[in-house]
Design goal:
With 287 residues, the protein is of the alpha/beta class. The chain folds into 2 domains: 105 residues, Elongation Factor Tu (Ef-tu), domain 3, CATH 2.40.30.10; 162 residues, Rossmann fold (3-Layer(aba) Sandwich), CATH 3.40.50.80. 21% of the residues lie in helices and 29% in strands.
Length: 287
């Protein structure tokens, strides 16, 4: 029988899904004025395997627990990387954490992005704002297995140049000949020389084979709605569009109903959904 440590290494300790595992903050990086990334590790180095698109429930003692996607490289299961925008009680407290502080981690949970199904296909990734964080593990995976995929395109939109996440990495990716990276901002400030306008404006200019393309989309709900419309205009099928949904969560394991999205639970049935399975729900506001 697998020991608890082995189960944690496998990344899914389903026997004790309510029990947080303790991780230590090893590194903290400021990404923007309101967003930071921290690397979490266990004291024994066991870490936690995960698939691109999965999330953890992160707990700060005495404050609360929130779902946060994993933004690191799936090849590195020793370190859990999370990129967090400080918006409210728990995430603002997380921003105060220092190296060596402990965080409770339950997970990883949820259905991943379809990196296996995308093999042999072109892939277009469309990210808005913090939505680039849950998609970064996909990018690491696709680039690590570059020969298994056709064209790879990233369209990333941020509100202003100051809101752009992972700037250095974006520049490195953009310098590659086998990765088409386009970044745009809603509002230009400072010395920005790049694209201006919402991210959906980039889609009509992209070159890909619509019948062979898988789209992965994550961002604010309104951005995802318009992105889907543009992708459908480019003749992508509803079956080949995948979106990541966000809802308030408590348990993360399909028990409490907090994350209900129509007849689905975002924690168990998502967070990554095939658009054709959820089109009716995505078309309605505030479900
Ligand atoms: C599957 C999943 C993955 C997620 N991954 C990430 C991630 O990788 N990084 C990340 O930063 N967040 C992520 N989130 C969102 C994150 O869980 C929330 O931002 C967090 O729960 C807010 O908790 P809080 O206590 O800090 O804020 P609260 O005190 O609960 O909220 C404070 C205020 O912020 C607003 N607010 C809450 N959530 C958001 C939001 N997402 N965007 C804008 N305003 C918000 C509330 O409406 C409220 O007005 C994810 C959510 C889900 C469901
Ligand atoms: S968070 Fe409890 S059912 Fe999804």
């Amino acid at each position: 029988m697998a020991t608890t440590l082995e189960k944690i290494k496998e990344g899914l300790d389903r026997s004790q899904p309510w029990m947080p595992n303790l991780f230590r903050v090893e590194r903290i990086r400021k990404e923007t004025y309101d967003t930071f990334t921290f690397d979490l590790e266990t004291s024994d180095g066991a870490g936690c395997a995960f698939q691109p698109g999965q999330f953890n429930m992160l707990y700060i003692y005495g404050v609360g627990e929130v779902p946060i996607s994993i933004s690191g490289d799936p090849k590195n299961s020793r370190t859990l990387v999370h990129t967090i925008r400080a918006v409210g009680t728990v995430t603002k407290n997380m921003r105060q954490l220092k190296r060596g502080d402990l965080v409770g981690v339950r997970g990883p949970f949820g259905r991943p992005w379809p990196v296996e199904d995308a093999k042999g296909h072109d892939v277009i990734i469309v990210a808005g704002g913090i939505g680039l964080a849950p998609l970064r593990p996909v990018i690491y995976h696709l680039l690590a297995h570059r020969e298994q995929y056709g064209k790879i395109i990233l369209h990333y939109g941020a509100r202003t140049p100051d809101d752009i996440l992972f700037r250095q990495e974006l520049e490195t990716w953009r310098a590659r000949f086998d990765f088409d990276v386009q970044v745009t901002v809603d509002r230009s400030t400072g010395s920005w020389q790049g694209n201006v306008g919402v991210v959906t404006l980039l889609i009509p200019k992209a070159t890909f084979d619509p019948l062979q393309t898988i789209a992965m989309v994550c961002g604010p709900e309104i951005m995802m709605r318009f992105t889907v419309l543009e992708l459908l205009k480019r003749d992508l099928t509803e079956e080949n569009i995948f979106l990541s949904g966000e809802r308030n969560m408590k348990c993360g394991i399909g028990h409490c109903g907090h994350c209900q999205f129509g007849h689905l639970f975002v924690c168990n049935d998502g967070p990554v959904f095939r658009y054709s399975d959820t089109a009716d729900l995505f078309k309605k506001r505030e479900i």
